[in-house]
Structure formats: C-alpha cells, structure tokens
Write a structure and sequence with these properties.
Blueprint (H helix, E strand, L loop, with lengths): L2 H77 L7 H82 L4 H13 L5 E2 L1 E2 L2 E2 L8 H9 L12 E2 L6
Parallel strand pairs: 1-4
Antiparallel strand pairs: 2-3
Length: 236
C-alpha cells in the first residue's frame, strides 16, 4: 500500500474516534440540563405541596378559633337562661342556643375533615420530600460522572487532534485538502473499504476492473458515486 493511502487510513480511524468522543462530550450538557430540569420540577412540586399545607393550617387555626369563640358564646347564653323573665324569651333563647350548637357541630365536622386532609397531605409531602432528597443525591452523583466523562472526552479529542495533524503533515497539501473536504461533506467518513465490489460508504457497486485496482492499494482511487477514497482491507 502506498504511504499516503496508509496514512489516510490511519487518519480516518482517528477521525472516527474523534467523532465518537465528540458525541460523548455533546451528550453530557444535554443530560445535565435534563436532570436539572427534573429536579427543579420535583422541588417546585414539593414546594407547592408545602404551600397548600400551610394554607390549610391557617384555615384550621381560624376554624378552631371560631369554634372556641362560638362555644364560649353558647355557654354565656346558657348562663343567662336563669335571668330570662318570660317564657317566650326563654324559648327564643333556647332556640338560639340550639341553632348555635348545630352550627358548632357542623364546624367541628368540617374541622375534623380538614385535619384528616392536612394529615394526608403531610404524609404525602413527607414521602415526596424524602424521594426528592434521594433524587438530588442521585442527580448530583450522575452529574459529577457526566462532568468527568466530558473532561475525559475533551482530553481524548485533544490528543487525537494532535495525532491527526501530525499524520496529515505526511501527505501532500492536495491530498490533505481533498481528505478534509470529504470529511466535512461525507459525515466524517472520507476513507472507506470495498467489499465484494461494493463501496461501504454509499453502498453502490463499482465496476469489476476498478475493484481489482482498488484491491491492489497501489494508488489513490475514489468511488465513482460518492468520491470517497478507497482503502481495501481484507479483514474488514
């Protein structure tokens, strides 16, 4: 195999690794943003639940205060029964006291339901807060892992670029330019193998005589369809 073709084959392998590591690197920020968004949504949910509980607690305290005031008023009214002078006034006051007691019973029932609702929400909130804490720790660990992975990919890409540039200096400026154009236009695949007379870049068949020439690896030959450079390898 001629030296320039061998060099381009090696550069193509390096470029393939560079692309793989750049994909690894690109995945990191996207995943980190996704994790941060999920945690933010979970925190907002827990915060909303806490807000609902606080509002219900305010309502509970208000009802308890109202109930206490109303019961005190009933006792006061009952104590005044002995001071009533006429039967009509007595019956009216009894009716008023009974109505107040009925209203108090209703308030107590509402308060009981409110307490049950608060207890249920507190239970759910506690479970949600515990789950959030667990997810925060998991997210922190995964984020650190992704950041390490990104740094590793950066280091590898930097090293590979150095090797790539060193190798490309071995070929002529014309061949180097052709290779770089193909890398840009052909999705990072400039040098390809040929199997059974088929280009493994565009999967188009090439003429039999051209395939024979490609197998010799004695000169730079490009695909008639996609213009990629052929580098024949039996083991591939």
């Amino acid at each position: 195999m001629i030296e320039e073709l061998e060099t381009l084959c090696q550069v193509q392998k390096i470029d393939t690794k560079i692309i793989e590591n750049e994909k690894r690197r690109a995945f990191g920020p996207q995943r980190i943003d996704e994790l941060a968004k999920r945690i933010s949504e979970a925190r907002e949910k827990v915060s909303r639940e806490q807000g609902v509980i606080e509002e219900l607690e305010k309502e509970r305290r208000k009802k308890e205060q109202e109930l206490e005031t109303e019961k005190a008023q009933v006792k006061k009214s009952e104590s005044k029964l002995t001071e009533v002078k006429t039967n009509k006034e007595y019956q009216a006051m009894l009716k008023e006291i009974e109505a107040a007691k009925t209203a108090n019973d209703k308030t107590e029932e509402e308060l009981l339901l409110l307490l049950e609702r608060i207890e249920e929400l507190k239970k759910d909130h506690k479970a949600g807060a515990k789950d959030l804490e667990k997810r925060e720790k998991e997210t922190e660990a995964e984020t650190k892992g992704l950041e390490t992975e990104m740094r590793s990919a950066d280091d590898i890409v930097s090293k590979l670029h150095g090797e790539r540039d060193k190798l490309l200096r071995r070929v002529s400026a014309e061949v180097r330019a052709k290779y770089n154009i193909l890398i840009e236009k052909r999705a990072g695949l400039a040098v390809v193998n040929v199997r059974n007379g088929t280009c493994l870049g565009c999967f188009m068949n090439i003429p039999p005589q051209l395939f024979i020439e490609v197998m010799k690896n004695s000169r730079l030959i490009t695909c008639p369809s996609c213009n990629r450079i052929f580098c024949y390898r039996e083991e591939e």
